[in-house]
Amino acid sequence: MVAILSYLENQNPPVVHRDFTPDNLILQPDGRLKLIDFSISHLYQTGGGADCAGKHSYTPPEQYRGEATPQSDIYAFGATLAFLLTGKDPQPIATSHPKETVPEISQQMDNLVSRATAIRLVERYENCKWIELDLEDSASVVHAD
Questions:
Q1: Residue 43: beta bridge partners?
Q2: How many other β-carbons are positioned within 10 Å of the β-carbon of residue 60?
Q3: Residue 43 domain-assigned?
Q4: What is the residue range of 82's domain?
Q5: Residue-wise DSSP of 77-115
Q6: What is the CATH number of the domain that holds 135?
Q7: 86: which of 58, 65, 102, 105 is 20 to 30 A away, CA to CA?
Q8: Does the predicted TM-score (pTM) go above 0.85?
Q9: Measured distance CA(108)–CA(139) in Å, rounded
């Protein structure tokens, strides 16, 4: 999922999907993940507004104000990850902590999801590169034993 969002945010201008949800991800038999339904996506421009769109549990607060940015898709990624970890839609407009529902989830993964779904943009991952670094750190902790 991070590779898909990284690709979108590295376009010039960046593409904001605005509907990154489990319903719009397809896992192919060969293991590749595909993102579909770009019907409400737009090219990001600083200061440009857009109508609110997206599924309630996966939509960040700034998108309701018509201010979607690439960080908005990061929020939706975090909410999608919370769903994949718990099997339940996350609480709308809230920071997700999947470990509260499934205690076996690692603290590192819970931290990643909560930072991705931070309500305030300054607390949310700035871009996918930071998520990739945290995932690498998590993998090294798991493999350190």
A1: 15
A2: 26
A3: no
A4: 2-36+49-143
A5: HHHHHHHHHHSSPPPTTS---GGGT-TTS-HHHHHHHHH
A6: 1.10.510.10
A7: 65
A8: yes
A9: 10
